[in-house]
Fold this sequence. Notes:
The complex is a heterodimer of chains A (349) and B (115). With 349 residues, chain A is α/β, with parallel strands linked by helices. Chain A folds into two domains: 7-133, Rossmann fold; 139-341, Nucleotide cyclase, GGDEF domain (Alpha-Beta Plaits). Helix content of chain A is 44%, strand content 25%. In chain A, the strands form two sheets. In chain A, strands 6, 7, 8, 9, 10, 11, 12 and 13 form an eight-stranded mixed β-sheet that branches. The longest helix of chain A has 25 residues, at 227-251. The radius of gyration of chain A is 22 Å and the shape is elongated. Chain B is an all-alpha fold and 115 residues long. Chain B has a single domain, classed as Four Helix Bundle (Hemerythrin (Met), subunit A), CATH 1.20.120. Helix content of chain B is 84%, strand content 0%. The two termini of chain B are 27 Å apart. Chain A binds chain B through residues 13-17, 19-20, 23-24, 27, 58-60, 87-89, 108-109, 112, and chain B through 17-19, 22, 25-26, 29-30, 33, 52, 54-55, 58-59, 61-63, 65-66, 81.
Amino acid sequence: MAERGARMLVVDDNKVNRLLLARSLEMQGNRVALAENGRVALDMLRRESYDLLLLDIEMPEMNGLQVLEQLKTDLQLRDLPVIVTSAIEGLDNVVRCIELGAEDYLHKPVNPVLLRARIGASLEKKRLRDQQKELVRRFATPEVAQDLDASGFALGGHRVQATAMFSDIRGFTSMAEELSPEETIELLNTYYTLMFDAISGQGGVVNQMVGDGLMAIFGAPLPLADPCGAAARAALDMIEMIALFNREPDRAGKPVIAIGIGIASGAVIAGYTGTQNRATYTCVGDAVNIAARLEAHTKTAGFPILIDEATRSALGERCEVQGLGAVSIKGKAAAVTVFSLHAGQTVRD
Amino acid sequence: MPEPTIDPGTFAELQETAGAEFVAELVDTFLEEAPTLLVELRDARSEADVDRFRRAAHSLKSNSHTFGALALGALARELELTGMDADPARDNARIDALESEYARAAAELKARRRG
């Protein structure tokens, strides 16, 4: 099993909590180190390597939220999976942790069975993320900055034909109010896993995740023969996966999720932005802007997948689309012709 | 219905999952740490330090729930969530109640750790 012998750091200002959590983790075959506040923990993380961080929120000197903020800006540590364990009450705290990049949230006293399951899931997700990073090597690694330096490939980027996609969960905020903190995190985690699978399965790259929304690019940095077709297939897969995912909550009378997807294609400037030491792969251009607006427009249109004219013409006769006429969108002088790509079909080669 | 001083089910489950011997040590740690937290709470009150006050109450709540000290947990939770009162006398009365309940919980935990 992947989690056997994993090296964990437990951070908690309370000795009873620290000892008990360490005991649970050791009984599950992990190696455990302890820290009594955020500052000590960060020092330890910078000196030695750990597979997972279990982090308390309420602590003197440096609290858990401050640790999350620091980790986020640290190139070496920002991929370290963090599970927050806290007895703090209120959904806003949980949401804040997730926004700051925590993988999961467990309420104290921590149930050992739940703890084992979440650790397994976190380590597995880290493995998948590492794989995806391998696929897109250039994603924010120090080697890339060096590579860019050596090749003289400017941070400014270059012009490529690509397809941009935006997706988010409809009415997520009101849904989160109905769910327990644990259920909300569980839901977001499952959602992201499914969407990543669908997108990377078609050769796309997720380059932004904000709350319940994400942005993906098809055709950059890795060229694709048919970026429009790949994006359309990924979108149809995403809708299908969500439908499958909804079956169980639907049967149990729990809230189900609906997503909206916007897709647009064209020439975009793709490249690294940032500094030589810390760069992210980004895409800017009209198509990106239009995809974002189309995604927002799915609400009004009442169709889950909207595409622009350029994407539609590249798809040609390979799938069924319905014209929805011209729509004026923010930031564009001319109206944009919008098409709905109906769910439940396949895109032919 | 008042909360029990120690919920037998929670305590038994803790012993089962973490081992009775370990729980005996954990009780000792709690009995060492809790008085410091109570002092911390009093000090924070007299210095009107709201963060320290909340943190100490939060820690006591969290530990109480671990051992099934439900009545103690409820009192600590009340202090954590309502925070410091404008009237110090009212807070001191609340801390008095917390201390008495701690004495009961500590006695029962000592008895149970042996059993």
